[in-house]
Structures are given as structure tokens and as C-alpha cells.
Amino acid sequence: MSRRTFAHGALALALGMATNAHAATDADLDAIRGEIRQLKESYEARIRALEDRLKNAEAAAVAPAAAPPSPPEPVAAAPAAAGGIAAFNPAISAVLQGAYINLSQDPSKYMLFGFVPSGDIAPGPRGFSIAESELNLSASVDHLFAAALTFSLTPDDTVSVEEAYAVATGLPYGITPKFGRFFSGLGYQNEQHQHVWDFYDAPLVYQAFFGGQYTQNGVQVKWVAPTDTFIELGGEVGSGTNYPGNDRNKNGIGDGVVYVHAGGDVGTSNSWRAGLSYLQTASSDRAYSIVDASGIDTPVSFTGRSRIAVADLVWKWAPEGNPRERNFKLQGEYMWRRESGDLTYDTNVNAALAATSSYSSRQSGYYVQGVYQFMPEWRFGARYDWLDAGSVSYGDNGAYFGDVDFHPQRTSVMLDWTPSEFSRLRLQYSQARLVPGVTDNQWFLQYILTLGAHGAHRY
Amino acid sequence: MIRYFIAAILLAAALPAWCALNVFATVPEWAALTQELGGDKVNVYLATNPLQDPHHVEAKPSLIARARNADLVVATGAELEIGWLPLVTQQAGNPKIQPGKPGYFEAAAYVTLQDKPTRLDRAEGDVHAAGDPHIQTDPRNILRIAQPLAARLAELDPANAAFYTARQKAFADKFGAAIANWEKQGASLRGVPIVVQHKAFTYLIAWLGMTQVATLEPKPGVEPTTSYLSEVLEIIKQKAPKMVLRAAYQSDRASQWVAERAKINVVTLPFTVGGDEQAKDLYSFYDDTIARLREGAAK
Questions:
Q1: What is the number of other CB atoms lying within 10 angstroms of the CB of residue B203?
Q2: pLDDT tens digits, B90-145
Q3: If we measure between CA atoms, which residue out of A268, A198, A191, A182 comes closest to residue A232?
């Protein structure tokens, strides 16, 4: 506007000058020059003022200062890579693991004296090996469910479904149902995948009572109480086909688990979680072999009920809640197991000697471990495992079996290096006394690598 | 009689808290902003403290318990909380705060993210696919987020809609004026060469027009090695930056190492509300940031 006026004024002046120039005297000329100079100065001042205003307005537009706030910018579009046919692909991640293992005792003879063998719990082959690899897929199913699938790829070229479950998201009142195959919510470490454990192998109690880890095929319902302190109640029913249960060709519910977890913070630097869990399952002709009193490996089978109670506690410390520099984690679980039913003692030599009698056992065990990150990327950990073979009553079969008065135990230390969230190298040494008079010195050098989607920081 | 009296007092004491909107803020800046906009109509729970790295947080029991009762989650988004927030919202059993619902607010959706990686590869360190999530280092982003956040509060609590709108208007005026003031104070920082410890100040640097000449981390989130820091010393020698910027929650090891050898100031910025004693609220947070930067540049 003002610039245009200036232009008009200049044009009029020029025209005026052109028409009157020939008739003008020197005095007139001076007067006109003076006017022009004045005009020029005043316009220059106004232009300067305008330019300043423009500059301020531009600055204000960058910072929407005192002006009423501009409407929000449109929501940033999703990255281009997420478009097209792959847009709805689930999050995929793979975990690769391997180890170099040195064992002073033969792993094929690995056993926990006084405890029933429970699947593949041996520490792995001697020398170089790859350990279990994992493939995870997870995504929202729709507005009601989210689901995850984890394949376990074992070094001997078998694939198994480690977890395959769906969670109903967004139900009210703190209720979260889960169904499919999943690690049971009992205890603390049971829900964790092997690659996030702080040691190479599972605690002895987990090996003795669950064969490493208790997997559920069934339904879980968790309820979080509406309190500021974390209180969670959970219950599960399932097939009960996993150790210590087995497949009983049975309709209905095979096992049941109930638990309560509580947790919270103490100041800004400490947090904790504690829990109590109870599992009841059963087995029918769960076969295994046992060394009897005369030193002969004898097949036996158990039919009856198993009940396990777990008490767990986790305490974490990080200065000001920032675990990046230093942090400490203390973790322990105590388990009691009671089995009662019938045991069939069945020598291969003579079927007539097969004898079935009552059986009951009360056994327990615990582990406690601490892991200290003393500087970024580096952690040191120690763990102590202890089992009590407890009291076992064989009823009328008692004569065949010797007394079990021995406590398998193991002490482990580890040092690991975690250069990023996606890789970890670990050195672990364990001294295991699992059988009377035998000490197994175990060395593990292990790597854990994660590819793909960012994993969750589970507590 | 006295029993009824006590009951009435208890009820009166409990009522405001019960009526208020329960807000679960992931980081201090959103807790502060929600408090500015919501006043006594909101009950804000802050999930992390200013000295925590907001990325390296676990889905602690206390977080799940608080998310259970939340009406609104205010998060940064852009993968900042990817390690823990999805787990917390999934385990809380609270339909209101699921992603996509009105009770789930991501601030990063309302600003233009910078530094989108050109190469999405873990070999590049902690890269965020959507762009740099540390948007709170530029106060203009706070202003941009205030309006949609107030609108969200109004949507969830329509009875107090006018209240939130009025608070937001008042905040926009006051904070806008404050920004103009910070820009005036920060004018001397334009073009000042600096080194950052972690690539966390993208928005602050862009806002004040400083020039970043080096990063003490070879890749985002990767601890520096001595040989890498020696390279940084060379750059410092050539480009003579005025200071090394470090966020309060980060270790001072690398910056001190460099400072001792290169005789360069280390400026520890609060990074968020509560990051140091001076940064008490959104205003003093930027007051303090600018003051520290000016001091660092002047030395």
C-alpha cells in the first residue's frame, strides 16, 4: 500500500517536473529539489519502518508468539516405508545365540540327584555350538486383540512353537485375558525368554520342577487392582501337558495356576516386585528312570498330582532411577513341590516284579542372584542355587530305593558386555555339585544378538 | 454425629481428586504442560524423572498400576517410549489409554520432526525412524502442542472444556511473550559453534541458530572410545567451538575428558523441567537453558 503510494507520488513528481521544467527558475528548482529530498527521506523512513515490521512479522510467524496459536499442523504422515502391501506386516525380530562351552563332566549324564529327570535340562554340548534361535512376530490383530508368535529354532534342526498367544487389549476394569500357548505368569523368571536371562542357564529349581520353564496351553486372566501400589491377581487354566504334568488324554481342565504380584517404588532409586504363585497339575504314567538301591537304572512311572508353590522377589536399584550408568538387580525365588500318587516300579527283567505303591514327595529349592552394572555396558553377576531332595516316601516300594539325603547346589558368576540394546556377550563360570561326590566345572562363552524390531523393556 | 462429620470431610477431601482427570505423563515436560493447561482439574502422574533417560525405562510395576487408573496418557511418541509404554498400556487393562483412543496423546504428531534418518540401519546407532524425538528443547514446539493437548483435555472432560480453552489461551499469550524474550536473549548465540555429547539438541540448535560441529558419541547412543574422542579433539582445535552441551541425565565422563584436554566449557542443560534446581517449570526451564548457554558462550 505505502510502496504503491510512493510510486504514484514519484510518477506525479516526474511528470510535473517534465511539464514545468522549461519554465522553472533556479529558485523553483531548489524548492522542488528540497521537496523531493524531503519526500525521499520520509518515504525511506517509512520503508525502513515497514521492513522492520515485516522482519518482526516473519520472526513471529516462525514463533507464533503473542498471536493466537495457529491450528495444529497436520499429523505427520507415516513413513513411506510403511505404505503399500507391507503396511500391515507384523513387527519381526530374530534372536541369534551361540556359545562355546567347556564342561568337566559329561553333559549326557547330567542329572539332579534325588530329582526326577525333566526333559532337556543339560547345559548344552561341549565345544562350539549355536544355542536356540528365536523368531518373533507380533502385531495388533484388530481392535480387540494383539497377538505374538515365537518360534524356537533349535541347533538340532527342529522348530517348535515356543509361544503363540493373543491378548485381548483394552478391556476395562484392569482385566487382561491371554490365550494360546504362553509362558505361565507364575514366579518371576518364568515369563522371560531365555535370551533375557541374566545367566546362560535356568536356575536349578526351574530345571528340577519345570524342566526349565513352565509353558501353558490355555487361558490366562490377569487383573490389576485400581490402587497406586501395583497389585495384580492372575489365574490360568490349561492343558497341563507340560512337566510336571503330562498328556492325560483328558477332557476339561488339565492344570490350574493362581498368583498374586505386588510391586512399587521406594524413592526414585529403588523399585521392587514380589509374588506368590501356586500351580496344581497332574500326570498319568509319567515315565522316567531312577537308579534304585542296588544301583540299577530302573524304569518307573508316576501317576498322581503335583503341586508347586513359588515365592519370588525382585529388587532393582538405579541411582535416581537412571540405570544407564550403574544399576543393581537382586532376584530370588523359593519353590516347594509336593507330589502324591502312585509309583510303578517296573524292572525290565521280570514283568511279574512290577509293583505299584503309593508315592509322595516334598521337595524344595531356591536360587538367589545379583547382577551389578558397574559401568555402562558392563555387568557382573553372581548366583547361588540350592535344592533339597527332601523327603520321599515310596510306600511298599521303599525297599527298592535308597535314602536321598543330598542337596544339589551350584554357584555361578558371570561378566557380560552389552555394547548396545541389541547385542550381548557373556562369560559365565559355574561350579555345580549336582550328584554326590561329583563337581562339574562349567564355562560358557555366549553371544546373544537381536535383529529387527525393538524388544520390550520388561521389568 | 462426629462420625458423619468426619465422613463428610473425608468425602470433601477425596472428591476433587476423584473428579479430576487422571493424566499419565511419560516425561516431565508433558507433565508440566498438562498441569499448565489443566490446573486443578487434572491429576498428573509423572512416569519418569528428569534424570532418567526416557528411552531406557522398564515397564515397572508402579507404572502399570498408574496406567491402570489413567484417563489420558501424554507421551512424546516418535519411538521415544517404544521400549516400555506399549508394554505398560497392554498390561494395564485400561481401554481408555490404548493407542488410537482419545486417551492416548502423542505430542510428536503435532510438530514437524527433524533429522529423519536417511539410512534406517542399526549400524547407525540409536536412530529413530520417525525423526528426533527430543522436541522439547525448542519452546515453540511446546506452544504448538499446547493447543491440541488442551483440545484433548476438553474432549475427555467436556464439562470443563471452556476452562481448558481459557487456560490454553492464557498460556499461549504468556508463553509466546516468553519465547520472544528468550529469542531476544538468545540472539547472541546465533552462529556460535558448539559440540554436543549426545545428538539430543537438534531442535534447540535449530531454534537458536547455533552450529553443531561435533558429537561426542560416534553414533547416537554408542559410548565413545578414546580414539574417537581424539578425533573430536582435532575438530575442536580446528573449529574452536565455544562449549560442549550435555543433558543433565547423561554421564559427564566423555564431556569432562574432552573439556580437560581441549580447555572448553561443558554446559550442562536441564534438558527438561526439573533437570536442575533452577528449571522448576516450563518458563524457568528455558530461562535456565538460555542463561547457561549465554554463560557458556561468554566465557
A1: 21
A2: 999 999 999 999 999 999 999 999 988 888 888 888 888 889 999 999 999 999 99
A3: A191
Q: Does the distance separating the beta carbons of B148 and A457 come in below 8 Å? A: no
How deeply is B224 buried, as exposed, middle or buried, from its count of CB atoms within 10 A (0-12, 13-18, 19+)? buried
Residues of A in contact with B223 (CB under 8 A): 376-377, 419
Q: Could you tell me the sign of the dihedral formed by the alpha carbons of A117, A118, A120, A122, in that order?
A: negative
Q: How many CB atoms lie within 10 A of CB A431?
A: 14
Q: In chain B, which residue's Cα lies nearest the Cα of A64?
A: B176
Q: Say which residues have a Cβ less than 8 Å from residue B157's Cβ, sequence separation at least 6.
A: B21, B41, B71, B164
pLDDT in the model for residue A396: 79
Q: Which amino acid is at B141?
A: N
One-letter amino acid of B189: L
* Minimal C-alpha gap between B89 and chain A (Å): 9
Each residue's pLDDT tens digit, B192-239:
999 999 989 999 999 999 999 999 999 888 888 889 999 999 999 999
| Per-state percent for chain A, helix, strand, coil, to nearest 5 | 20, 50, 30
Question: What whole-number distance in Å separates Cα of residue B4 and Cα of residue A57?
Answer: 62
Q: Is B93 within 8 Å of A455 when comparing Cβ atoms?
A: no
B38-64 per-residue burial string, b: 16 or more CB within 10 A, e: under 16: beebbbbbbbbbbbbbbbbbbbbbbbb
Residues of B in contact with A171 (CB under 8 A): 93, 95
DSSP state, B40? G
Strand B21-25 versus strand A133-140 pairing type: unpaired
- Cβ(B195)–Cβ(B241) under 8 Å? yes
Identify the residue whose cell numbers are 574417537. B228
Give me the torsion for CA of B212, B213, B218, B223, rounded to 10°.
-60
Gyration radius of chain A's alpha carbons: 37
pLDDT one-digit tens code per residue, B24-45: 999 999 999 999 999 999 999 9
Residue B217 near residue B232 (C-beta atoms within 8 A): no
Q: Check residue B59 and report its DSSP letter.
A: B
pTM, whole model, 2 decimals? 0.83
- What does the pLDDT read at residue B16? 43
Is the pLDDT at B174 greater than 80? The verdict is: yes
Look at residue B10 and tell me whether its pLDDT is greater than 60: no
**Preceding omega of A319 cis (within 30 degrees of 0):** no
Query: Long-range contacts: A430-438, Cβ < 8 Å, 24+?
Result: A430/A201, A432/A408, A433/A408, A433/A409, A434/A110, A434/A111, A434/A112, A434/A113, A434/A204, A434/A408, A434/A409, A434/A410, A435/A111, A435/A113, A435/A408, A436/A113, A436/A406, A438/A105
Sheet strands side by side (includes B193-196): B211-215, B193-196, B243-247, B265-269
Is the pLDDT at B18 greater than 90, yes or no? no
CB within 8 Å: A169 and B66: no
Residue A94: per-residue pLDDT: 96
d(CA A60, CA A55): 9
Residue A12: per-residue pLDDT: 44
**Alpha-carbon gap, residue A120 to A212, rounded angstroms:** 8
Q: Is the dihedral of CA B137, B143, B146, B151 positive or negative?
A: negative
pLDDT of A39 reads 67
Find, in chain B, the residue whose alpha carbon is nearest to that of A225: B65
Chain A environment of B222 (Cβ under 8 Å): 419-420
Residue segments in chain A with a per-residue pLDDT below the cut of 70: 1-29, 31-32, 34, 36, 39, 41-83, 119, 347-353, 402-404
Residue of A nearest to B96 (CA): A170
Complex confidence, ipTM: 0.87
pLDDT for residue B121: 87
pLDDT of residue A314: 98
Verify whether the Cβ–Cβ distance A231 to B92 is below 8 Å. Answer: no
Chain center to CA of A379: 18
